[in-house]
Structure prediction request, 335 residues.
Amino acid sequence: TFVFGIETSCDETAAAIIKNGTEIVANVVSSQIESHKRFGGVVPEIASRHHVEQIISVFEETLEQAELTFQHIDAIAVTKGPGLVGALLVGVNAGKAIAFAHGIPLVGVHHIAGHIYANRLVQEMSFPLLSLVVSGGHTELVYMKEHGSFEVIGETRDDAAGEAYDKVARTLNLPYPGGPYIDRLAAEGNDTYALPRIRLEEGSFDFSFSGLKSAVINTVHNAEQRGEEIIPENLAASFQASVVDVLTEKTVRAAKEYGVKQVLLAGGVAANKGLRSSLEHAFSEIDQVELLIPPLSLCTDNAAMIAAAGTVLFEQGKRDGLDMNGHPGLDLEQF
Ligand code: ATP
Ligand code: MG
Ligand code: FE
Prediction:
């Protein structure tokens, strides 16, 4: 089967073709980051307009790369939520138009299911498994007993991990999105600032990052007031150590408690070098659990992951009609 994936939930206009759920035939991502940088974040109106301008050429390039036409495509998989509603609607309507024009079945995909299924482009999944989803809008531990089944066993109560990275980066006057800049700075510094590890109640798999973010902001303000210099490399390293420690600790505990065979890292923050090496180290000591980490290009938003998740849903008989809508707050357990 060939599945054509479409992703427009935020600031990447993306399309891809996946063969048999696991093999990338074409993968095209057009990023708008340059247009949003000067505003320090994604501007929804600008995002929608860019998607409209880019989507046709992204589709054409995808078919060209694959040397296929829509006649060869068995299903269209498109992100129907969560995300910016105006941005989602561009992909959803493009998907519906192609499905209608060529008589191809249509499957709506949850964006986070896509992030998780990026792992299937690397290696086959074995169940039960646990996925640590860390992105710009989400921080969740997701338990999967089989394909297409998602149980959220823990989630952030305030900021997402990526959001905390981006806010801390702004405090340090780094460009948007700041995650990769903090990651690079952290590699040059040491954990000297003694920032808190926020673990919440004993046994909880939930997360909280807003207190840590405030601790970083206070550290910078207090230094300014005393006329002292902060050492950005060390502050970045201290912040990253705090995030990575808590994420690693809770993921290891959940993997043991739920007796999973695999742990899958997913989402944009999965590109973080500190997090990748901390998880690799932790799971190298647990023989029963296999750790999967997608390559950097499949961690941030792309349509290959949407087509990978869409293939499984398509094979399970899931379909959406031409009345499909964009859902900014789509629920992972219900969609
Ligand atoms: P969601 O997937 O929750 O809807 P999103 O699609 O905007 O949100 P992604 O594209 O998955 O989020 O990830 C983007 C986030 O990943 C940004 O917050 C960015 O700073 C962060 N990020 C990217 N690379 C790194 C890195 N190396 N270290 C830390 N954070 C990173
Ligand atoms: Mg993005
Ligand atoms: Fe994403």
Observations:
- The chain is about 45% helix and 20% strand.
- The pocket of magnesium ion (ligand 2) is lined by residues 10-12, 136, 300-301 (CB under 6 Å).
- The longest helix spans residues 232-257.
